Amino acid sequence: MTKDITTATRLLAKADPVMARLIRAHGPCTLAADTRRSPCEALMRAIAHQQLNGTAAETILRRFRALFPHKRYPKAEELAAVTDAQLRACGFSFAKIAALRDIAAKTLDGTIPTSRQIKRLPDEAIIERLVQVRGVGRWTVEMLLIFKLGRLDVFPVDDFGVRNGYRIAYGKRQMPKPKALARFGQTWAPHRTLAAWYLWRAADAAKSKASVKGINA
What we know:
By secondary structure, the protein is mainly alpha-helical. 65% of the residues lie in helices and 0% in strands. It has two domains: 94 residues, Endonuclease Iii, domain 2; 109 residues, Orthogonal Bundle (Endonuclease III, domain 1). The relative contact order is 0.14.
């Protein structure tokens, strides 16, 4: 993946002078996909993290894993056998329990592909299948495509950080609408994941600068 990212970064810089400036400012992309997790496991983690800070979510997930042999993430059939009371005791809300139940059911019926199957599917096919899962929207699947599968042409236009990074990098007064950003993003295809990564860096840098300014005020 590192070689692919290096090539994509070079082509992205040639396609857009603003991106070239961001690449110079923030250096090489350090994006690394975590390919160890199955789609089922990745979705369990995504549900746990929804609307919670990372520390709270990981605490719940530790309790969750403790329900199963070797304190590992369960297979779908193991998850299906756990009671609601056990999941509540871990800290899951009723809505998240329903989502976990659906993850188990849709893994067992084949809607959620296996690790081997998902590697052969195009991005939109993966999105179409996984958004059928309760509690899983397009943004969640896009994050899976980027951070689990390492797909290089994903552009999460509904992501606040991406939109804000675009506003900052391109000197816009207002946040772009997702549809308008999607149209502009065609400039970066087929390297839109890299563009999103650098827009995140632009947003993070602006936030850090504002924090330092506030401390020194």
